Design the sequence.
């Protein structure tokens, strides 16, 4: 006899918001997607709120032996937490913000790739949580590095190099894209 234990972990923001956007290769953000109220005195022209949502279910026997698991990993954009200053926002800045969302998708793919290597065991819950925590830490560091190296989009040459790099990385992990 088997029983299904469903555990769903969603991180970063409340995912009840119907306006949340899942990353899609054929969709690029527009300024209309940024619905949050700009924050005063931040020095930022725009902020992209994005993150990885993660859920999993585990199938156990009656004696609690894990026999299977499934996962869901998505890169999301949160319009109500994302904002811009209309008088300072440009197409170039929007491209910078899009790349933040693309980076989130890149790390969602890395997460799916790492999950694909996890073997079914009674430790799977802890392994999944550990991988999730590691990916989120790496994602945050990577986003900060991106902003630092592009000087928050002001370094046009670095911005272009990052764009090309992320495009290549997304292609390299195409096997771990979703069909959303």
Sequence:
């Amino acid at each position: 006899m088997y029983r299904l234990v469903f555990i769903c972990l969603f991180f970063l923001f409340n995912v009840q918001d119907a306006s949340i956007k899942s990353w899609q290769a054929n969709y690029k953000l527009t300024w209309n997607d940024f619905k949050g109220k700009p924050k005063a005195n931040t020095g930022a022209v725009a902020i992209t709120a994005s993150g990885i949502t993660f859920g999993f279910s585990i199938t156990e026997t009656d004696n609690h032996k894990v026999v299977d698991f499934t996962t869901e990993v998505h890169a999301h954009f949160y319009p109500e937490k994302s904002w811009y200053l209309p008088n300072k926002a440009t197409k170039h800045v929007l491209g910078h913000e899009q790349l933040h969302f693309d980076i989130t998708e890149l790390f969602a793919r890395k997460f799916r790739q790492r999950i694909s290597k996890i073997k079914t065991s009674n430790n799977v819950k802890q392994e999944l949580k550990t991988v999730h925590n590691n990916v989120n830490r790496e994602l945050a560091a990577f986003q900060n590095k991106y902003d630092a190296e592009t000087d928050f989009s002001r370094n046009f040459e670095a911005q272009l190099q990052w764009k090309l790099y992320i495009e290549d990385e997304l292609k390299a992990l195409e096997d771990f894209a979703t069909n959303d």
